[in-house]
């Protein structure tokens, strides 16, 4: 809705109304701060924790307004970038229960003009609402100089945003300056119901400074208008502070009034979404409008205790990526397309295309702004990892770079163990907390919780609420540092008389807790039954069991039936405790073993939750609880179970094969006749020689024949392929022996250098490798030299040796082939 300045002849009545409202402003500030004139942060009294929200409802909502400078100092491209930045905020909000408004502002300098323009009314950011916001936010880029002046009216912008966020009704008009240099009231009421507990936040974009010198409502002359505008801004900030509205200014360009931006951040409500540094309102400045989309989203994340993940950028067609961590439970992927023609497709970390709306693999999806320059995919329970965003554009629409970012928040569920479960007044108790996401991911990596602060509030009958811290530092009472189990102790106040309620609070960048209470009752006197509960830490496969022990002392004269149960289980876990009930005998102590069976459909990962034991004889009073420390892993594959045996077998086979291969190699080498020379002799005269070449003696066998041409000396000729029965065969046994099988005869041993009968001829074998001597033979180096009856050199085959007759013992010589 566009507000128009109403000028009537009833000027006096308007002045009176303005004066009354001006008085109401300081009065409201006095009520909020406790003392008149106090302009600091409002003191908030400590109260008991609010009723926790159901974790299924998602992140807590906020009400926010994006207030955008439309003054004449802005170039068209700057205004376009402001528009896209505003669209990124309203599209990227992660809670469907939040409400958003978009307001443009300039100045009012003549009749018919208004300093503000309601571009988008306060709208619930659900599926339909985000589509409406996607459409209406584009109105920011259409300036109407006839209805809005060129100046910069910060007071009117803040007033309009506060009014819209708090639901206050606008008054009949606005007061005017008196010409004396003093400001007047605004004519806007401060009434209206404020939604309890919902943060109210204003994000203000501007490129300049306060400029109301030509706005008549601030005075009758230019000299007083700027001064009155500054005073009016202080009043409007006080009103925002009283209404609990934060102001987060973001400036860009070189003409900024940094002091004014700082004053706006510090003049509004100083409450924050958490105690984390950086979550309280502050101003921010960037150099140019090209940086405001990134800076505004970072500012938005800080204001609502979320985190922002910056992804990649590129021109269509392209695949962009952005990573969502395992701790995130709610998020939005925002795509700054600039051009509505750009088409976007989303893929989860498993590479699967996700729907634009609906459920898929435990996650909920909802796309908005597909027909606008900014598009967003809201995801509940997102799959952690790198998400891929594929962008396409028709010809002529892919010249601008597209960027993807993710705003996320982790809303954690807490499993809390109170020890003892029913403490007495004045007794010290230990509190242990374990955390998991709604998707069932138990947080076990402390790096995901960097900067996490865990505290607890104990409230109940007979005492004021007590707060205390929990730590994961390995110092007593914490058992182990870095196991993401936070532990602390406190003493139950002596005045505690009945019911107790314990609520844990977790605070870290991007992390909030579900604030579900743990209920207990103060015990009266010494308990009749006490119990100690332990569960083994284990890594198991689905279908396995985990052992535990229950130690019970029953001081009653009657037996007590105790029930073992499970609480805060990981979604989808199939756990069974056996036995489910046990009996504690009277007047004694007993130890009872039990098991927890992990069902075969239980999801992999750390199991959340705890084992509890309750006394059924006393209204199911909880005696003890113990957090599970069990991790379920995928069953090993056949290879994982037997790989050692397989590798060992393969190594053994290789060793045996190598050994056999080496033996065969050397055996073949010993049997190889390559280099052996056969000499054909007759009557002591050499007729022909034949040398065995490589590859001619397969298996140590060489076949040959003697050709006797008519009228010519006999010659030796190799016969390929073994030669059959028509050839002579020389064979090596591989053990240093040579055997000669004459054609058609029986094989006989042959020694090198000695003639062997071959029909009408003799055969002398020479060459080859020597073999070690057998028996008592003479070593090779000391063997007698052979002499022949004719030729010199190797001799004719006759040997001279140590015998008296010049012969030698044939067994003293051997040749290894």
What can you tell me about this protein's structure?
- Strands 7, 9, 11, 12, 13, 15, 16, 19 and 21 form a nine-stranded mixed sheet that branches. The chain has a six-stranded mixed sheet with strand order 3-2-1-4-5-6, sandwiched between helices. A five-stranded antiparallel sheet has the order 37-36-38-39-40, with no helix packed on it.
- The longest helix is centred in the C-terminal third of the chain and has 34 residues, at 638-671.
- With 817 residues, it is of the alpha+beta class.
- A hairpin with a 6-residue loop joins strand 39 and strand 40 (748-750).
Largest sheet: 9 strands, mixed
Average pLDDT, to the nearest integer?
81
Rg estimate, integer Å: 48 Å
Low-confidence parts lasting 5 or more residues at pLDDT below 50? 1-56, 169-195, 770-817
The coarse overall form would be elongated
Which structural class do you get from the secondary structure elements? alpha+beta
Termini Cα gap: 111 Å
Tally of DSSP β-strands: 44
Residues in helix, %:
10-25%
Indicate the proportion of strand residues: 25-35%
Count of discrete alpha- or pi-helical segments spanning 4 or more residues: 8
Would you spell out the secondary-structure blueprint of this structure?
Layout: H1 11-33, E1 63-69, H2 76-92, E2 99-105, E3 116-124, H3 127-136, H4 154-166, E4 200-206, H5 222-242, E5 245-252, H6 258-267, E6 284-286, H7 292-303, E7 307-314, E8 318-324, E9 330-336, E10 343-347, E11 357-360, E12 363-368, E13 374-380, E14 385-392, E15 402-419, E16 428-436, E17 453-460, E18 463-470, E19 485-491, E20 499-507, E21 511-513, E22 517-521, E23 529-535, E24 538-540, E25 545-554, E26 560-567, E27 575-578, E28 581-584, E29 588-598, E30 605-606, E31 610-615, E32 621-627, E33 630-632, H8 638-671, E34 677-682, E35 685-691, E36 701-707, E37 715-718, E38 728-732, E39 738-741, E40 748-750, E41 755-758, E42 761-766, E43 769-770, E44 815-816
Parallel strand pairs: 1-2, 1-4, 4-5, 5-6, 15-21, 24-33
Antiparallel strand pairs: 2-3, 7-15, 8-14, 9-13, 9-15, 10-14, 11-12, 12-13, 15-16, 16-19, 17-18, 17-20, 20-22, 23-25, 25-29, 26-28, 26-31, 27-29, 30-33, 31-32, 34-35, 34-42, 36-37, 36-38, 38-39, 39-40, 41-42, 43-44
Helix pairs in contact: 1-5, 2-7, 4-5
């Amino acid at each position: 809705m566009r507000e128009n300045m109403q000028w009537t002849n009833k000027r006096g009545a308007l002045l009176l109304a303005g004066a009354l409202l001006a008085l109401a402003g300081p009065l409201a500030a006095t009520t909020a701060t406790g003392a008149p004139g106090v302009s600091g942060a409002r003191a908030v009294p400590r109260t008991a924790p609010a009723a926790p929200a159901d974790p299924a409802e998602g992140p807590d909502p906020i009400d926010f307004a994006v207030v955008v400078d439309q003054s004449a100092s802005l170039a068209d491209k700057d205004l376009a970038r402001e528009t896209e930045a505003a669209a990124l905020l309203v599209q990227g909000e992660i809670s469907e229960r939040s409400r958003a408004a978009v307001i443009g502002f300039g100045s009012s300098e003549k009749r018919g003009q208004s300093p503000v323009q309601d571009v988008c009314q306060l709208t619930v950011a659900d599926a339909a609402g985000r589509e409406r916001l996607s459409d209406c936010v584009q109105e920011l880029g259409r300036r109407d100089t006839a209805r809005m002046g060129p100046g910069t009216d910060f007071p009117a912008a803040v007033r309009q945003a506060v009014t819209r966020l708090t639901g206050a009704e606008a008054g009949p008009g606005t007061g005017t300056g008196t010409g004396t240099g003093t400001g007047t009231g605004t004519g806007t009421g401060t009434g209206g119901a404020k939604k309890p507990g919902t943060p109210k936040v204003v994000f203000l974009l501007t490129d300049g400074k306060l400029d109301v010198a030509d706005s008549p409502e601030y005075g009758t002359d230019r000299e007083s208008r700027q001064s009155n505008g500054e005073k009016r801004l202080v009043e409007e900030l006080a009103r925002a502070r009283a209404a609990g509205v934060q102001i987060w200014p973001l400036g860009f360009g070189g003409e900024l009034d940094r002091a004014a931006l700082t004053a706006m951040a510090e003049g509004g409500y100083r409450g924050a979404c958490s105690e984390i540094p950086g979550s309280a309102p502050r101003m921010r400045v960037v150099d140019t409008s090209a940086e405001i989309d990134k800076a505004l989203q970072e500012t938005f994340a800080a204001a609502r205790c979320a985190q922002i993940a910056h992804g990649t950028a590129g021109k269509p067609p392209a695949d962009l990526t952005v990573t969502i961590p395992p701790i995130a439970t709610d998020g939005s992927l925002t795509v700054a397309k600039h051009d509505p023609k750009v088409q976007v497709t989303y893929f989860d970390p498993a590479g699967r295309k996700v729907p634009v709306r609906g459920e898929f693999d435990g996650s909920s999806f909802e796309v908005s702004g597909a027909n606008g320059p900014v598009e967003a995919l809201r995801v509940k329970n997102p799959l952690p990892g790198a998400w891929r965003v594929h962008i396409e554009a028709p010809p002529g629409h892919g010249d601008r770079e597209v960027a993807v970012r993710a705003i996320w928040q982790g809303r954690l569920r807490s499993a809390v163990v109170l020890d003892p479960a029913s403490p007495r007044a004045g007794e010290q108790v230990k509190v242990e907390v374990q955390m998991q996401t709604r998707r069932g991911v138990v947080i076990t990596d402390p790096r995901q919780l960097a900067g996490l602060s865990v505290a607890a509030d104990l409230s109940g009958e007979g005492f004021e609420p007590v707060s205390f811290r929990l730590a994961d530092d390995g110092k007593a009472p914490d058992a182990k540092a870095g196991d993401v189990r936070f532990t602390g102790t406190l003493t139950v106040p002596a005045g505690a008389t009945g019911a107790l309620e314990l609520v844990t609070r977790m605070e870290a960048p991007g992390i909030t807790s579900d604030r579900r209470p743990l209920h207990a009752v103060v015990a009266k006197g010494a308990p009749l039954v006490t119990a100690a509960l332990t569960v083994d830490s284990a890594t198991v496969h689905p279908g396995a069991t985990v052992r535990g022990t229950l130690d019970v002392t029953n001081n009653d004269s009657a037996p007590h039936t105790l029930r073992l149960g499970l609480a805060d289980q990981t979604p989808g876990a199939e756990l069974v405790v056996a036995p489910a009930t046990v009996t504690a005998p009277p007047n004694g102590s007993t130890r009872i073993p039990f098991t927890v069976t992990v069902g075969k459909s239980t999801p992999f990962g750390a199991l959340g939750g705890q084992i509890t034991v309750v006394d059924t004889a006393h209204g199911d009073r909880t005696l003890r609880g113990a957090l599970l420390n069990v991790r379920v892993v995928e069953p090993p594959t056949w290879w994982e179970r037997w790989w050692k045996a397989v590798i060992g077998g393969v190594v053994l086979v290789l060793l045996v094969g190598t050994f056999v291969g080496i033996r065969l190699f050397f055996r073949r080498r010993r049997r190889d006749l390559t280099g052996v020379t056969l000499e054909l002799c007759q009557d002591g005269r050499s007729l022909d020689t034949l040398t065995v070449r490589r590859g001619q003696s397969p298996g140590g066998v060489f076949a040959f024949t003697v050709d006797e041409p008519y009228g010519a000396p006999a010659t030796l000729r190799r016969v390929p392929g073994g030669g059959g029965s028509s050839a002579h065969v020389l064979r090596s046994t591989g053990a240093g022996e040579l055997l000669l099988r004459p054609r058609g005869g029986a094989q006989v041993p042959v020694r090198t250098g000695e003639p062997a009968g071959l029909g009408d001829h003799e055969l002398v074998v020479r060459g080859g490798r020597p073999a070690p001597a057998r028996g008592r033979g003479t070593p090779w180096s000391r063997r007698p030299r052979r002499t022949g009856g004719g030729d010199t050199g190797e001799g004719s085959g006759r040997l001279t040796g140590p015998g008296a007759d010049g012969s030698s013992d044939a067994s003293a010589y051997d040749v290894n082939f």
